[in-house]
Amino acid sequence: MAFKIARQYHHQNGEPTRHKFISRHRAYHGNSMGALGATGQAARKIKYEPLGVGFSHVPPPYCYRCPFGRNKDGCGLECATIYEEVIRWEGPETVAAVIMEPVITGGGMIVPPPDYMRTVQEICQRYGVLLIVDEVICGFGRSGQKFGHQNYGIQPDIVTMAKGMTSAYSPLSATAVRADLYDTFREPGPDAHFRHVNTFGGNPVSCRVALTNLEVLERENLVSRAEELGYLLREKLEPLLELSIVGDIRSFGFACGVELIEADGSPAEADKVMKVLASCKRDGILIGKNGDTVPGFANILTISPPFVTTEEELDLIAGSLLVALRSLDAG
Ligand SMILES: Cc1ncc(COP(=O)(O)O)c(C=O)c1O
Prior knowledge:
Layout: H1 2-12, E1 20-24, H2 33-38, E2 55-58, H3 78-90, E3 95-100, H4 116-126, E4 130-134, E5 158-161, E6 174-177, H5 179-184, H6 204-219, H7 222-237, E7 246-251, E8 256-260, H8 270-282, E9 288-289, E10 300-303, H9 311-330
Parallel strand pairs: 1-2, 1-3, 3-4, 4-5
Antiparallel strand pairs: 5-6, 7-8, 8-10, 9-10
Helix pairs in contact: 3-4, 7-9, 8-9
Bound molecules: pyridoxal-5'-phosphate.
């Protein structure tokens, strides 16, 4: 939907040649033919290509294994400035939008450097390219703010959202746009309106669930609670870094990724991740993973507990992970 809005907006704004989208390798934006084009995970595309035209990808802001060969002190933010090169190489007059999550979540909890999003937004604005922020996972408190991008002080043109809107008690998604983008769809003319319908669109039950869910989030201050829990979780997981199988721990609000490695630093084999998941499950704890993404990188545990988790439960999570990972370290 966001892609259709972006293309139609440019048409109605006098720039009909802007049709391309730029996203990132390792990012996930959905499974339908359009969204899969933006998704940067080769394993999800097997047997479905070729996908829609007009999608290109840039390297992710993956500091732990910087695609530009930098380390923290020598960071030149090439992962952000590369957008300018790609936009120019593609021809700015052909580029409709950049799409990104505030952090790449399902693709391995890849948290960008602090100035990344702001730099990308400046580049987009310079070239008339819209910035679509995918808040399907980060939105509604998971990041410790209402929306993930608020952690980076930017203002997107289009925002997609879903999961946390109803806390998944009922399916619902939405796409929000800047007011002046919206206004171009109100202009007179036979084709100016947005032509997008769904069988289950505007479902009243889901909308009611969302409203109640948002009331609960506000009443119980669950967004700031998620922020606090995020710090605590991070603190409790930090000791895992002493294990040789743990290469990196990355957190964003109340979501954490633990990157597992082999003795030589290469990504751990997927079966090790499965062993950790199984061990934690025996303790009653469900841990996620970045499966089916890019070849050779099914090595990241993802932890994103409910906002009502107690501190004792965080201890349980950290303890269970420690036991599971220690047994792999030993063997
Ligand atoms: C970051 C992100 N974007 C987009 C989507 C796609 O949403 P849907 O499955 O509702 O199409 C997902 C789904 O998991 C997601 O995690």
